[in-house]
Amino acid sequence: MCQSNAYFIQNGREELFLEDVVLIKPEGEKILLEGLFGEQELVDAEIKVIDLLNHKIILDKKE
Hints:
Order of helices and strands: EEEEEE
Number of strands: 6
Shape: globular
Helix content: under 10%
Structural class: mainly beta
Number of helices: 0
Largest sheet: 6 strands, mixed
Radius of gyration: 11 Å
């Protein structure tokens, strides 16, 4: 499988936000994340890192 987990940076640490992300799509100033089972999250964040080898998407919330 090719899904990854999405994390937010909180207090200098990675906090799990959404597991098994299969789609990342820009929606204006926000990012739409979709999980393996169809769950969707629209977040006001920017992508810091997409690490495909380690199946991680690192996001930083916009202020």
